[in-house]
Each structure stands twice: as structure tokens, then as C-alpha cells.
Design a protein that fits this description.
heterodimer; A: 232 residues; mainly alpha; 10 helices; 0% strand; B: 377 residues; alpha/beta; 4-stranded antiparallel beta sheet; 17 helices
């Protein structure tokens, strides 16, 4: 941690000497606008991925689904091997140019870790908890909300964290199909051979990724009950 | 009261129909502990789980306190039956208090009442509520977790308790302690308990009735002493072990074989008087008591026969005494340890009440074999 700080600080001094910070500063207006767009992309696609992924994972973990679930998980795993860029290209083919295919592509890319971890987390709840809960007279929904979910939550959060990290990191590609976001500065900077412009996009993207990761981590720390939270 | 009538469970498997429980009929009276005993896969757990409908019976009836359980919604029914499993199954996401309050909350108790109840129950299982209510299961030892598991099952004061090898995963020393605690609690609460075990010693210790299962059939349903003394067939005899008569020692209290007698002398009594008493009663020893009636030593007839003076001068110390409420196993063990054939018994205050002899013990244990017709089956 200390070393990382020293390195960051030294890099900052070098950047200052080269006038890099000043030249990045020129893009301040763009940075603010595009960061907002970027966050919007991540929030919408990530939110939708959670909204679909968690229920899908829960549904696949139900006893009646066990057999079909393995097949579906295999299919999803296969899906995740398709590069995000290819997914975006396919999305563009069907949905045209703009925000909608971008959100679809990012949604598809972040869906899998959420489904997979929700499913694994639910299967990881020992059968005897469920037997005890049933034997005590809890109804299936009460068992799901009172016993299964709290005990699967830690693993589920790990999936959401991975998914959002992937999402933030992939979101710059949205620019390529007209989705906007910080990718605009990065790719234009590369095309124009303008490092300060490129960095004006890359640095906020990196900061955003760290911030999102930290936020989800903190949320998991407080939301997962103390008895099943290895961190507390 | 739990009554099972022709309870049957058949599973369809690719290899054909497997009958896990075959026309089980039995009745456990109010306040009794019935231990279902048998090797793995004999149907004892299946039978237990049919009572709270974790397994739906194929046919047959279950009555709890005279009511046919078919008439109830299985979920409602389970809330009125305590359930303890071997893995305990305390919910790790809940504190001890929340775990105990699960069933009271399901039954719609208000929170304050449920919490008071949790705190009372912890006190009865010897865990300080102030320390343990807010702990999580992972912060308890295995034995403490199992106690909390029992407390949780008792939370809503159910008349019936089902226990599936509840003490099976606890180390032998703690298991004895927890069994004793459970029995003590049982004597106060008088629940009707069905208890699955594969350990004959546990069954002998806990049970009022033992049901022995083999391959889905109820082989014998009887008191522990009758199962040990009169196993119904060679399978049961093998299962309960070749030392089964020794196991019966645990079922009898010292008080039951006590040769209660007022025979005793004080240290000031004359030797002649003492010898005369011993001869008169055909006894080879005499216990000497102090003024409070506590045994202080003994004299042997061979040693004092030709002596005179106060008997206290020839007093030999007693190597050991037993209390009336100890079981015969403890008494016999003490005799073997000190190489003696009789023991002085004392009551709770340490006052001498009589003696147990090896002869008396063997006579009592042998009685049932001499008159097999007298034993009800």
C-alpha cells in the first residue's frame, strides 16, 4: 500500500513536470460529461444484469431445476467465452448504433458472473440447514429469505463485484458502437496520437473501476450478516 | 402420546420398490423417551421423519395426543413438534437468540415474549443468557451448539420432540454430559420424545422404551431392561451385544438392590455384642457409624471373633461408599476397583443406610432369567 502510494506520488510529480496534468486539464469539460455518460451505461447495464442474474441464479438453484440447471450453466459458460467486442458487434448488427446495443452488450458481459455466483452460493448452503428449517415449520419462501439467501449472500456479492468490475472496464468499448462514455477520449486519443487525451479517458475509467469495486465491497461488508461474513 | 399405526413407506427406485418402513405400529406414552435403534438403513430415521412429514408416509396413520396428523397442514404441524438433527442446523446467519426465536415468531408470538423465552431456555441449558444470546453459532463449541439446538426445538414448548441422532457428532465426554443434562431437563419438562440412535449404550441410558429396527421392520418394542434381558431373536441379541447383562447394570439404581438394614454398631459397642449380631444375621462384616450415623469404618468377623473391648479399636477404614442414586455399574466398578464384595451405601446427607453385595446384584440380575414367563412381552 505504502509502495503503491509512493509510486503514484512519483508518477504524479513526473506528470506535473512534463506538463501532462495541465494538458489533461484541458479536457475537464469532456471528462465530466463523459464520466456521467459512462456511469449511466454501467449503472443501467449493471443494474439490469443484477435484476436478471440474481433471480435467474435463484431459479436455477431450485430443487426442481437441478438437472436443467447444469445444462444452462454450461451454455452460459460457453457464452462468456465470446469476447465482449464481438458481443457488441453482434448487438450492433441487430440493434443498430447507439446506447441501446451498448447497454445490451455490457449487460450480456456482466450477466454470467452474477448468475454463476448466485447459483453456486445457493447450492453451497448445506442441506441440513434446509432440513432443520423445514422441520421447524418454515415455508419455502421463508426458508429462501431467512436461511438460504443470507447464507449465499457473501458468494453472490463476490459475483456482483466481479461483474461490475468487468462492466466498468469494458464500458469504454461502447464508444465504438456509438454508446458514448469515456471510451470517446481513449479511442480518439489513440487515433490522434494524443496521449493526454487518451489519459483523460483512461485515468477516470481506472478510478471509476476502483471506486465501484470499493463500494460493492463495503456494501457486502455491511449487508452480509456477521455470522456468515468471513470479513467481520 | 405418539401412536403409529401400520406406518409404511415404500420408495420407488430403478432397482424396484424399496420398503423403508414396513407396517410400523407402536405407541409412546406421554412423557416417555422412545429410542429408535438399529443399524444404518434400517428405517428408523424414515420412521422419525414421517412423524413430522419430512417424509410423506405411503400408508398408515400417525396420532399425536390422539389427533390424526393427516388432518393438519404439514407446515403447521411441524411448528408444534420440536425437531433436533445430528448436524444441529443452527442458522449461522442468526444469533443464538434469533435461532431460538424462529418457531415462536412463526407462531406469531410478540417479540418481547419470544426473547424472554429464549433467555429462560438458555438459562435452563446452563448457558449464561447475558453472554450467549447475541453470539453467532460459529462462536460456540460443538457441545454448546447442540444445547442451543435442543433449546431451539423446545422454544414454543411443543408436547413432542423428535431427535435424529442428536448427540452423535459430539465427543464421548461431552456426550455423557449433554445426555445427563438432557435427562435432567426431561424429568422436569416431561415431553414425549422420539429419539433415533445407533448406539445401544445411549439407548439404555436415555430410553423408557426401545424400538429395534431391521430392514424396515420393527423387530422388538420393549423396555430397555427387557430388550437386554430377553432379546426377541438372534439379530437383536447380536445387536445389543454379548455383554448385554452387564449393560443392565446401568438400568438399576443402588437403592433397588440395597439390603436396607438397621444393622450397625457404634465405636463404643463391645466386640462380643457385635460378633453376636453378625452371627445372628449371618453377616461377615459390620459397619461402624459415628454419632451422626455416617459410616466411619467396618470390622470383619474373622478379625474380631476372639478379641474383646470396644469394637472401635478394631475399626478398618471403608475403601469406598456409594450413594443410593448411583447406578449399579458405578457400584460394581467401585467393588472391582477395591477388590471387595460389598459396599456401604449412604443417602444424600452421607448417612449410612445399608449395604449392597455382589451376591445381591447377581441375584437381582439373574431373577428375570429364572422366571422368563413372568416377564410381560
Amino acid at each position: 500500500m505504502a509502495i503503491a502510494l509512493i509510486v503514484a506520488f512519483s508518477l504524479g510529480i513526473i506528470a506535473q513536470r512534463n506538463g501532462l496534468i495541465d494538458s489533461i486539464g484541458k479536457y475537464r469539460g469532456d471528462i465530466v460529461f463523459l464520466t456521467q455518460q459512462h456511469i449511466k451505461l454501467v449503472a443501467i447495464s449493471g443494474g439490469l444484469a443484477i435484476a436478471v442474474g440474481v433471480p435467474l441464479g435463484l431459479w436455477l438453484s431450485r430443487p426442481g431445476m437441478r438437472r436443467a440447471a447444469e445444462t444452462i450453466m454450461q451454455a452460459l459458460n460457453l457464452g462468456s467465452t465470446i469476447p465482449t467486442l464481438a458481443v457488441l458487434a453482434l448487438a450492433m448488427t441487430f440493434l443498430g448504433i447507439g446506447v441501446v446495443p451498448a447497454i445490451f452488450g455490457l449487460w450480456a458481459a456482466s450477466l454470467l458472473p452474477i448468475v454463476r455466483n448466485t447459483y453456486a452460493g445457493m447450492l453451497g448452503v448445506p442441506a441440513h440447514f434446509i432440513e432443520a428449517a423445514t422441520g421447524m415449520g418454515m415455508r419455502p419462501l421463508q426458508i429462501l429469505s431467512g436461511v438460504e439467501l443470507p447464507n449465499a449472500l457473501f458468494v453472490m456479492f463476490a459475483g456482483i463485484r466481479t461483474a461490475l468490475a468487468v462492466n466498468v472496464g469494458t464500458a469504454p468499448l461502447a464508444f465504438l458502437i456509438g454508446g458514448g462514455g469515456l471510451g470517446e477520449l481513449i479511442f480518439t486519443g489513440i487515433d490522434l496520437n494524443e496521449p493526454s487525451m487518451m489519459l483523460a479517458g483512461a485515468i477516470p475509467t481506472a478510478l471509476l473501476a476502483v471506486l465501484v469495486d470499493y463500494a460493492v465491497g463495503a456494501l457486502a461488508y455491511w449487508v452480509v450478516p456477521r455470522g456468515v461474513n468471513p470479513l467481520r | 402420546m405418539i401412536k403409529l399405526e401400520n406406518l409404511t413407506k415404500a420408495f420407488e427406485t430403478p432397482a424396484g420398490t424399496v420398503v423403508a418402513a414396513d407396517r410400523i405400529t407402536m405407541e409412546v406414552a406421554d412423557g416417555e423417551i422412545c429410542v429408535l435403534l438399529g443399524p444404518s438403513g434400517c428405517g428408523k430415521t424414515t420412521t422419525l421423519k414421517m412423524i413430522n412429514r419430512l417424509i410423506e408416509p405411503t400408508s398408515g396413520k400417525i396420532f399425536i395426543n390422539g389427533k390424526d396428523t393427516d388432518r393438519y397442514d404439514p407446515v403447521e404441524l411441524r411448528r408444534t413438534i420440536g425437531y433436533v438433527i445430528q448436524q444441529i442446523g443452527l442458522f449461522p446467519n442468526m444469533t443464538v437468540e434469533e435461532n431460538i426465536c424462529v418457531v415462536p415468531k412463526l407462531l406469531g408470538w410478540d417479540l418481547a415474549k419470544a426473547r424472554t423465552r429464549a433467555s429462560e431456555l438458555l438459562a435452563t441449558i446452563n448457558l449464561d443468557p447475558a453472554l450467549f444470546l447475541k453470539r453467532y453459532p460459529k462462536e460456540l463449541s460443538g457441545g454448546q451448539q447442540q444445547r442451543v439446538g435442543v433449546a431451539r426445538a423446545l422454544a414454543a414448548d411443543p408436547p413432542v420432540l423428535l431427535m435424529d441422532e442428536p448427540f452423535g457428532a459430539i465427543d464421548p465426554i461431552n456426550r455423557e454430559v449433554i445426555q445427563d443434562e438432557f435427562l435432567k431437563m426431561h424429568h422436569r419438562l416431561r415431553k414425549t420424545v422420539m429419539f433415533v440412535s445407533h448406539d445401544i449404550d445411549e439407548a439404555v441410558k436415555m430410553a423408557d422404551k426401545v424400538a429395534i429396527f431391521r430392514a424396515g421392520k420393527l423387530e422388538q418394542f420393549d423396555s430397555p431392561d427387557n430388550i437386554l434381558a430377553h432379546p426377541g431373536n438372534s439379530f437383536i441379541a447380536d445387536f445389543v451385544g454379548s455383554d448385554r447383562t452387564l449393560k443392565r447394570l446401568r438400568l438399576v439404581r443402588v437403592g433397588d438392590v440395597l439390603q436396607a438394614s438397621s444393622l450397625r454398631v457404634s465405636g463404643d459397642d463391645q466386640v462380643e455384642h457385635t460378633v453376636a449380631l453378625m452371627n445372628e444375621h449371618g453377616q461377615e462384616f459390620m459397619v461402624i457409624v459415628d454419632t451422626e450415623g455416617r459410616p466411619r469404618g467396618y470390622v470383619d468377623v474373622d478379625i474380631v471373633r476372639d478379641r474383646s473391648g470396644a469394637v472401635g479399636e478394631h475399626c478398618a477404614p471403608l475403601p469406598a461408599t456409594v450413594r443410593l442414586d448411583e447406578d449399579l455399574r458405578a457400584a460394581v466398578s467401585t467393588m472391582f476397583m477395591h477388590d471387595i464384595r460389598w459396599l456401604a451405601c449412604v443417602d444424600r446427607n452421607g448417612v449410612f443406610v445399608g449395604c449392597v453385595t455382589q451376591r445381591g446384584i447377581t441375584r437381582l440380575l439373574g431373577e428375570t432369567y429364572r422366571a422368563p414367563d413372568a416377564v410381560p412381552h
